[in-house]
């Protein structure tokens, strides 16, 4: 049986570490062409085949509500970062596709953001990073 006190301590440590790292890398988006939320949308979309993802997949990867994601995507459409159309396989769904401009802006920011993340995570060895990845995947039921 899991020691409840140890579980709570581990959870609090994980939560605080995530919060501190998130605060450190949040500044990566200051003065850039994308907000962090827009970056997150483009991260999901550009990793999908043909840079197209279902809106529900985008929503599933975000930490904000579905109506907020829908409004965000509409603003991104207006800015020319993505396009949105009806999903031909699901009449109730929508497909979101990165425009060339959106993909270029995303890639430029992604390179700098990845360097920032790597610098912050350099406190851990490669073995520790692999272990952290495995443990967090296990917590998310992805293992």
- Unreliable runs: none
Shape: globular
Strand order of the largest sheet: 1-3-2
Give the N-terminus to C-terminus distance in angstroms.
Answer: 21 Å
Query: What count of helical segments does DSSP give?
Result: 6
Count of individual beta strands: 3
The largest pleated sheet is described as: 3 strands, antiparallel
Structural class given helices, strands, pairing? alpha+beta
Radius of gyration from CA coordinates: 18 Å
General description of the model:
The chain is 63% helix and 13% strand. It is of the alpha+beta class and 143 residues long. The longest helix has 23 residues, at 4-26.
Features:
3 strands; single chain; globular; 143 residues; three-stranded antiparallel β-sheet; alpha+beta; 6 helices
């Amino acid at each position: 049986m899991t020691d409840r006190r140890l579980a709570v301590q581990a959870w609090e440590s994980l939560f605080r570490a995530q919060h501190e790292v998130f605060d450190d890398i949040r500044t990566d988006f200051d003065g850039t062409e994308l907000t962090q939320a827009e970056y997150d949308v483009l991260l999901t979309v550009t990793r999908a085949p043909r840079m197209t993802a279902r809106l529900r997949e985008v929503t599933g990867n975000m930490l904000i509500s579905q109506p907020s994601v829908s409004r965000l995507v509409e603003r991104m459409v207006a800015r020319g970062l993505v396009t949105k159309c009806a999903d031909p396989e699901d009449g109730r769904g929508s497909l979101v596709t990165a425009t060339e401009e959106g993909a270029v802006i995303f890639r430029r920011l992604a390179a700098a953001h990845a360097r920032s993340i790597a610098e912050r995570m350099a406190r851990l060895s490669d073995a520790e990073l692999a272990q952290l990845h495995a443990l967090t995947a296990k917590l998310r039921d992805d293992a």
